[in-house]
Design goal:
314 residues; Nucleotidyltransferase, domain 5; 2 domains; 38% helix; globular
Length: 314
Amino acid sequence: MRHVIALDVGGTGMKAALVGADGALLHRARRATGREHGPDAVVAGVLDFAAELHAHGAEHLGEPAAAAGVAVPGLVDEARGVAVYAANLGWRDVPLRELLRTKLGIPVALGHDVRTGGLAEGRVGAGRGADRFLFVALGTGIAGAIGVEGRVEAGAHGFAGEIGHVVVRPGGTPCPCGQRGCLERFASAAAVSEAWARACGDPTADAADCARAVTSGDPNAVRVWQRAVDALADGLVTALTLLDPRTLVIGGGLAEAGETLFTPLRDAVRRRITFQTPPEIVPAALGDTAGCLGAGLLAWDLLDTTPTTPEEPT
């Protein structure tokens, strides 16, 4: 049975699937990255995991995979197939596409994890049917994916969609990127966790705790939450002005707060826009499976056969 390999490499674990031409998930697997053993061991682990998936397909599906798609974190040069920098994996300039192509002997597509997840959300998730969408992931940091006609724009140098580094508070909190006042320093799940831990005096408190406190009416939590929502709305309106998307899909850990986030966020965006047409603002639909699903789509794109209704891996 014709199929492709889909592999999503995260900071601590890898999710994978063998995906059929109709989008069916024919095999699923998970594996630790082994980052505690160093960056070379992580690369070796990715190659070995991909080889195991390739062998499984050949043995159980009657033929080896026709292509592979891989999503990785950090800075990715998709045109060259190089993982330029991934701090949580210790990677710098890893030619992962060529390494995998040599190991497997099949075409390989390499993508940025958020853009790859955005591809899945745009084609088969919350943005399905939208000709232009913006996917924004609110996690430890903030990143985005710009979708146009079923494709995601990587940019000339692989940095398109980095909305987390739009400056929303000039001269504000320093960011590891070298700027001050970046959006992700105020509206990421990590930023909300840090602010709420300070406000409530509990160093173990996180963004989910803050959201629950907001729901119960805690005034300090409401203040922390609204600060994040206002910063996020400022960044999103900048993006909307530049990109004019039809649908804005919000995912990541902070989006798990549901309407505790989406109701004030929609209101805050609406108050800020003037001439812009407001997009539909919706939660992501695929959760942490988006990267794996998107990797499968990247692989099928190499073969000019894109499935339209893939199941979600578990």
